[in-house]
Design brief:
The protein has 389 residues and is an all-beta fold. The chain has a single domain (20-387), classed as YVTN repeat-like/Quinoprotein amine dehydrogenase (Methylamine Dehydrogenase, Chain H). Helices cover 0% and strands 37% of the residues. The chain has strands at residues 20-21, 26-29, 36-39, 47-48, 63-68, 75-80, 85-88, 101-102, 108-113, 116-121, 128-133, 153-154, 160-166, 175-181, 187-193, 197-202, 205-212, 219-223, 230-231, 242-248, 259-265, 269-273, 279-283, 291-292, 299-301, 310-313, 324-327, 363-364, 370-375, 382-387. A five-stranded antiparallel sheet has the order 1-7-6-5-4, with no helix packed on it. It has a five-stranded antiparallel sheet with strand order 2-3-30-29-28, with no helix packed on it. A hairpin with an 8-residue loop joins strand 25 and strand 26. The two termini are 29 Å apart.
């Protein structure tokens, strides 16, 4: 059960952990589509929500969780949506800002920091608890994209938390996908691979995970207990296919199958049945970061080269599904390596400059009524929420 702030919470107004900031939001109408948009943050510092396929809200939509740099370092904040006040949940110098994952019940926000995996409570003074310590291994590896972001995944039932950790040459130069039992604290290793990024539990099955490897072997699937680890899709090397930005489809939208939808940049999206290997065409629209809603009948995506704004379509209906403009993002969308018709890494080393807070990364609210995205159109990255018409 979730609730608002009360006398049991330690709150401060001068800054620091537990500080409460007055509402910063303002509302306006998108000039291109007429959609209702709310700018959630306005402090002149970097803000962003969790990665595009991860939730930004708890299921009751009491909290909208985001990261703010207003203290000089990335900290976890939450907007109490009833009052629109902003609550600072952490005050650390080692938060991995792309690891953040709120729990569905609204009780915790999970994150990695330092050399460990942590959660902070959203009530009772906002205590933090370390669920796993990985020793002398930094939880923020160098880099800006893929496995360097350190994204994590909490199962829909809140019981299991997948945390990838990259170990150095002294420990085999290998990545391990750890699974933490949030109830007992037990930590196991689901698999090892040379690169593990962007893990995600299946929304209907806490026993099934996917993760991204290198661009050469991008989409992997493994059971939570470590069995049946396999490559779900072999890219077309001759075409220099760039397979990227994948996520699970809900089974209800694809006839009970276990399907992953993914971008083949910039040629649209495909769906991969991970059990049979059957591939279907999802859309020919050049999606960038597509997020599938919980019903599996709606998808929202941002765009790049050119930035056309945010769009929605039905990912279960096939390429004939109409693609409808939702709102402008007008973000800077840093990352020149995206400007091409095939995987740039096939042509040799690529120096990537792609600060992730410049990417919209649109994602649905649990009830499907809203989309939250990030934009630096004002000159600094702020959080926005657009109402679906």
């Amino acid at each position: 059960m979730t609730r608002g702030l009360d006398r049991g919470d330690t709150v401060m107004t001068a800054g620091g952990k537990g500080s409460v900031h007055q509402a910063e939001s303002r509302s306006f109408v998108d000039p291109a589509t007429g959609a209702a948009v709310r700018q959630v943050t306005s402090h002149p510092s970097i803000h962003h929500h969790p990665f595009y396929y991860l939730p930004a809200y708890d299921d009751a939509m009491q909290w909208l969780v985001f990261v703010s740099h207003r203290t000089g370092a990335p900290q976890i904040f939450a907007e109490e949506r009833a009052s629109r006040r902003l609550v600072q949940l952490t005050a650390r110098d080692d938060v991995n800002e792309w690891s953040v994952h709120p729990s569905a019940d609204g009780r915790f926000v999970y994150f990695t920091a330092g050399c460990g995996a942590w959660r902070v409570a959203t009530a009772g003074g906002f205590p933090e608890e370390c669920l796993a310590d990985f020793g002398d291994v930094p939880m923020i590896p160098p880099g800006m994209v893929g496995d360097a972001m350190g994204t994590t995944s909490l199962s829909a039932d809140g019981r299991w938390w997948a945390v990838p950790v990259k170990f150095g040459p002294d420990k085999g130069n290998v990545a391990r996908l750890h699974v933490i039992d949030t109830a007992s604290g037990t930590v196991s290793v689901a698999c090892e691979h040379d690169s593990i990024g962007h893990p995600q539990f299946h929304p209907d099955d806490p026993g099934l995970l996917r993760f991204g490897g290198r661009y050469t072997d991008r989409i992997h699937v493994v059971n939570r207990d470590g069995t049946n680890h396999r490559l779900a899709y072999a890219r077309d090397v001759a075409k220099k296919e760039w397979v990227v930005h994948e996520m699970w489809m809900p089974r209800s939208a694809v006839g009970g199958r276990n399907e992953i939808v993914t971008v083949v940049w910039p040629h649209g999206m495909i769906g991969i049945d991970v059990d049979s290997g059957v591939v279907r065409r999802v859309t020919d629209f050049p999606c960038w970061h597509p997020c599938v809603g919980r019903d599996g009948r709606s998808c929202v995506t941002d765009t790049k080269h050119p930035d056309r704004g945010l769009f929605t379509f039905d990912p279960s209906a096939g390429p004939e599904s109409p693609v409808v403009p939702l709102a402008e993002s007008r973000s800077s969308n840093a990352g020149d390596h995206w400007n091409g018709d095939h995987c740039p890494y096939d042509d040799g080393p690529v120096k990537v400059f792609a600060p992730q807070h410049t990417h919209p990364h649109p994602t649905f609210s649990p009830d499907g009524s809203r989309v939250v995205f990030t934009s630096d159109s004002s000159g600094v990255a702020q959080l926005y929420e657009v109402t679906l018409r």
